[in-house]
Amino acid sequence: MANEKTYWKGLSQLSGDNTVTEKHQHEFAEYIPVEQFMGDKATLEQSSTSRRDFLKFLGFSTVAATLAACEAPVTKAVPYVNRPEEITPGVANWYATAFFDGHDYAEVLVKTREGRPIKIEGNELSKVTMGAVNARVHASVLSLYDSNRLKGVTTKGGQSAKWEDADKVIGAKLAASKGIAIVSSTIISPTTKAVIAEFAAKYPNTRHVSYDAVSYSGMLKANRSSFGMAMIPTYRFDKAEVIVSLGADFLANWISPLEHARQYATTRKVGKDKKTMSKHYQFETILSLTGSNADERFPVKPSEMAQVALDILNGTAGKVAADGVKKVVAALEAAKGKALVVAGSNDAALQLVVNEINKKIGAYGTTIDTATPDYTHQGDDNALKTLVEDLNGGKVDTVIFWNSNPVYTAPAALGFDKALAKASLKISFAGIMDETAALCDWVCPDHHYLEAWNDHNPRRGHFSLQQPAINPLFKTRHAQETLLLWAGNKTSYYNYLQNYWRSNFFGMQTAFGDFAQFWNNSVHDGVAQLRPQLVVAEEISQAPPVADTTATNPLSKMLKSGMNLNDFIAFTGGTISLDEAKSQLASRKGGAMEVVFYQKTSIGNGNQAGNPWLQEMPDPISKITWDNYITMHPLDVKEGNFFGMVEGSDKNLMVRFDQMEDELSVAQVAVNGVTVELPVWAQPGQKRGTIGIALGYGRKGAGKAAEGRGANIYPAVALAASGTMNYEAYDAKITKTDKTHKIAATQTHHTLMGRNEDIIHETTLAAYVKDERAGNEPIMLETYKGKTNVEEVNLWNDFERPNHKWALAIDLNSCIGCGACVVSCTAENNVPVVGPDEIRRSREMHWLRIDRYFSSETVKEVEEEKGEMGTKELYRNMENPTFDNPKVVFQPVMCQHCNHAPCETVCPVIATNHSSEGLNQMTYNRCVGTRYCANNCPYKVRRFNWFNYVDYHRFKDFNPSQDEVGRMVLNPDVTVRARGVMEKCSMCVQRIQGGKLEAKKAGVRPADGSIKTACSQSCPTQAIWFGDLNDENSAVAQMEKDGRKFELLEVVGTRPSVFYMTKVWNRDDSSAHV
Amino acid sequence: MNSSRQHARRTGIALAFSLILSLFFSASVHAQDGKALFKANCSSCHAASEKKGTGPGLKGVLDRIPGGDWKYKWVKNSAALTASGDAYAAKIKAEYNNAAMTAFPQLTNEQIDLILNYAHEGEKTPAPVTATDGGAGTKTEEKASGNTSFMVIIILVLLICLIAILRYTKINLRNAVNEKEGQPQEESMPFLDAVRHWMMNNKRKVALIGLFIFGVLIVKGWYGLQGVGIYATEVKKDKWVGYKPSQPINFSHKIHAGQNGIDCKYCHSTVEKSKNASIPSVNICMNCHKAIGETANPGSKEEIAKIYAAAGYDPNTQTYDRTKEMPVKWNKVHVLPDHVFFSHQQHVKVGKVECETCHGNVKEMTVAEQQRPLTMGWCIDCHRKTNVAMEGNGYYTQLHEKMKEKYKGQKSFTVAQMGGIECARCHY
């Protein structure tokens, strides 16, 4: 069965607008900006620099340069005075630590070179994240070297101060304080909670407010209603055969996305021995990363989600997405005990109904583990509300902010900044001068997590230790130490932590008889599985709510009782009954235009918005970088008359797409009393009548990379009557403005010229079970010998690969398009950040991109059978899908390391050539920059250094290697490329060389999996595998023999070393297209 | 008359020049001779400093010995002088364990003067790193050539000033004469105008000077281009051979690796573990030098004191003060460009290459010196000739069989045959 689906990357390609296509054929600008360069004629004539002057300068500079070049510089070598025992210059050290920023949790390994952390990778020992790391965690190493970080104690107005002075002044004020509130994002560190408890013991009028920018209060409330305890269970997607998500973006953002992605992938992988897959249904408003991976996706409005949940619970299809509900109900019924329903909403009523559904389908105890609660999201929306009331009422006059930025993230309606102004003492532990810190009297910066000790207890029984990988770069201090000091305890936090582990956790294990051994082992592994003392749930749920902040603080009580402090989530939101929930949901009314506030895969909740790696990473769906925007259904865009889209039929909707690419119309959105202006982006797959806006933009003080990017939409988040933040709004107004905004998208770059049948192979599970080559039929070419398999047609001689034959296998079935590999590759290979201007010129430097293809539905065979359309019309229509629900396929593309590489034959200086191990080598010092290779590459994976990105002032605000501190993140094993040379994926040849050397030293062949490229190492779903095809037992060798193996543009005959595996969908239809 | 005056002036200038030049040269020639003679005859017992050896240190010797012929008599035959009852001679002999100084009857009086003048001045030592001046190591960073070009520039500026002053004086004098003689004042032309005027009138000379400067620049430029790697010739290949930068500490490989036979890997300890062999950290030096504060080698105490200074070590109290630590800034001798990734462990541990193959005869070097070109051509040449040590290494076992099959009759294979001259082995 031939695959007749048409793929399109971006709406312009779809609409077939010639000007756009033409524009894209010219990747490089033909317009030479002489005018800009020379200035206008008048100024030129006024200028006193004559031609002769110019020649003089030229002559002088040549001579000067020559003279200066006569003497080669003296290179210094400065060895250590005392070389630390564990450091071998030139060899990386790895330290296990843990990342938690109140949003993402990951157990990681940090690679340090000569004492500098340069790379984050997953800790395979982790039972929580299982070695998976996402883009945000990868990029966190760059946040360490952010020169925007505070260099020491800072007072209001940015004056620097001394720690001693701060301690003295603050200590005196604290003693006189009427009420102290510590506002933090979720804290999962038991020892930190003990520190807070000790602080609260010294200052009894202290309360601790857990407030998360992106809150899960609704779930806490629903679970308290269902189980009597405010907690979030852990989800086991790996045990689910049917997965139903009601707007939960569980692969990118929801609760524990890394773990979910890894679990999800295990159910999606197929192979010789496993011909089953989970089936994934998604109801959602915007096209999310998770939704784009779903087998069946049903766009619904946010207000309709309630009805969908009720319908699924009742087992009756109603008006909303009836088709979807019907399918889901049947599937859930058939897979009882092996199914899972999750909802992304922060509405307790909806979550309670979802709990009921899960009870009904027997999910508890199988796919949902309530015995192992997840502690990573304890934010209590109601507590923040109470705090604002108490600030206004004068009950609280001192506020301490810790990894929390409510001035930026709190709803405008709450009036947090006004209430804060009434406090007499405001302290922040923020590492940068963020929006809240800017209003504080004292900023006492905490260490970056790579400089600090801490412990984490992400879920019951799982503990991890966070150890510093570098000495503090600036005069910062453990926030815990600061609190202890203010409480009169002068212990260092390291000692405090160790003591806490000695007295509390040492007894929870039996493997080690000696504490030093236990401690060293825990620090070494980074993780510890401990059996906590049984915590009686009833006892805790009966504990007084934390808002009661007098001496009966539950934390102090628990500290005394010796219980694990973290096993209790303080929650003041109350409960809700099922009937109440049902009636709330049934009465929900929608508006004409509804809004979803979502998190991007790259920026998340915005706390790392100043990180250039994350800003430059294209959004997996829109492929837009460096910006925030409004996503809308294309027809809504037309009706709103954005981009002048009024003429013509719907099918020719996108005639003005060329304008969209650069100049988006700016619209004004008024929602919940907040007005923002953002550019409008037409997003296929979005529900009609809805708007999507990402959180985390519009930062102030977060660094050059974040400054002035997009608008902050957090203030529009409403604190619902039920006491939880609502990341949806049911009635918004959107109006057109006259403004336009230039946007930088990688979306329509690198088109594969419509040769679609060679790019993505896909099939359905049913077809795959019958024939493992389904969707991957061999390509037959007409030759003089008759029809011949393309594999046998060869223009070139093959070469031997006697030693190794390196290859990358990419399983499209597991790839979820999250982009972790992109950031990992950037970190490993010193890929420069180029900023939005250059991206608009198609000059992004990422060695690895993830192509995202939308598919359309017009099927050639069907239409030909009908015979109603002429050929031209047919092809035209094939390019015109419905915009409602396109299928999405992701395909990571890096250098394919062709064994018959087109780039190699055109290089005039042989700067690119092939190794005997199958690598396409790029030699920078030989390259003269003709760019012939890039022009001849069918995959468009070569990148040209148009500028000296490490020096040229234009990239000062973007490229971290221009920063004195930022450049410390560079990997010393990879050359920083100069201007005028070509670069591309090297298949991490530095890692290959290193791995081979280790094997040679040990006198063995390198074991399969001992060498990993940055992308294969960092893939949370293990979609990318690296290995040696000459090693018959290697995973890649096995995958190469699999029926799903295909090569990108196989018909071109490039014989790549990178190959892909057919994407298998678990869909009902007999064909892959839906 | 006019011409004769001009002629006279020219001769005068020429004379003055040659005089100055001869002064310069003669001085340096004498110093050279004195040093050479001192080294050849005296240095085994005497130092050209205040340090005592077998005999006294000779710095400032002329101030303390009796005048007249005493010095000649003493050097030519000290025993005879002592026997003659000379008081100073007897005193010296008693001071140095009654050992008589070797007689040097072959030396002429002039030679003895040269020697003593040299020794009296004392040997000029490079700027030392001392305990009191921890950062002094940086002072040696200035390049010698930088100094000379700086000097040339200063001299040029001075010359131009001189010409301007002389010209001004000349005009004033002539005007004074003219005034006296009642002739009209010569107009005082600005200097630059005067130069231009002169240039207009002396086009041929200007052309010659211009041509000369142009020629100098061309030659300079040619070597300059070579220096930045615009072209590579045999000249380039040898350029770095013999590169022997001065070091903040006068460390001698000859003494350590040669005479004392210390294994290279004792100090360059990471050579088998890392791509870097590592310049040893000061604590490795201290392993031995904590006990060895001074040796028989001249200057050893001062040099070892620099190690103490770097380590923050006080030899008197035998304690370390970490706050006084100051890393030694060595001048790198073997410098590879940044785009080359060379691994010592690959070559030393796996390839079993001897250190001397690339670093030359280190055991004979008093100052570390580059003896191999370390160019890419040189690397590749070696990779083409050297066989891979495959025997006994499990990594190669299968591959070796395969290769033997492919190249029938050949048993060992060069690095190049194994792909060892492919770009991405070193460049990535």
Walk me through this protein's architecture.
The complex is a heterodimer of chains A (1074) and B (428). Chain A has 1074 residues and is α/β, with parallel strands linked by helices. Helices cover 29% and strands 19% of the residues of chain A. In chain A, the strands form 14 sheets. Chain A has a seven-stranded mixed β-sheet with strand order 7-6-18-17-16-8-9, with helices on both faces. In chain A, a hairpin with a 3-residue loop joins β6 and β7. The longest helix of chain A has 18 residues, at 51-68. In chain A, 57% of the residues are buried. Chain B has 428 residues and is mainly alpha-helical. Among the domains of chain B are: 2-124, Cytochrome c-like domain (Cytochrome Bc1 Complex, Chain D, domain 2), CATH 1.10.760.10; 144-239, no CATH class; 375-428, no CATH class. Chain B is built from 18 helices and three strands. A two-stranded antiparallel sheet of chain B has the order 1-2. In chain B, α1 (2-41) crosses α6 and α13 (282-289) crosses α14 (300-311). At the A-B interface, α5, β2 and α34 of A face α9, α13, β3, α15 and α18 of B. β2 (76-77) of chain A pairs antiparallel with β3 (330-331) of chain B.
What descriptors fit this protein?
heterodimer, A: 1074 residues, alpha/beta, Dimethylsulfoxide Reductase, domain 2, Barwin-like endoglucanases, seven-stranded mixed beta sheet, B: 428 residues, mainly alpha, Cytochrome Bc1 Complex, Chain D, domain 2, 3 strands, flat
The largest sheet of chain A, given as strand count, sense and whether it forms a barrel, is:
7 strands, mixed
> Helix segment count of chain A?
36
Report the end-to-end length of chain A measured between terminal Cα atoms. 15 Å
| Beta strand count of chain A | 46
Helix residue percentage of chain B: 40-55%
In the CATH hierarchy, the third-tier topology of the domain at 2-124 in chain B is known as: Cytochrome Bc1 Complex, Chain D, domain 2
SS class of chain B: mainly alpha
Rg measurement of chain B, Å: 32 Å
How many strands, what sense, and barrel or not for the largest sheet of chain B? 2 strands, antiparallel
Oligomeric assembly? heterodimer
Q: Assign the CATH topology of the domain at 7-14 and 751-1065 in chain A.
A: Alpha-Beta Plaits
What characteristic shape of chain B results from the CA principal axes? flat
The radius of gyration over CA of chain A amounts to 29 Å
Secondary-structure arrangement, i.e. CATH architecture of the domain at 2-124 in chain B: Orthogonal Bundle
Helix content of chain A: 25-40%
| Secondary structure tally: strands of chain B | 3
Low-confidence stretches of chain A: 533-562, 749-754
Classification by helices and strands of chain A: alpha/beta
Strand order of the largest sheet of chain A: 7-6-18-17-16-8-9
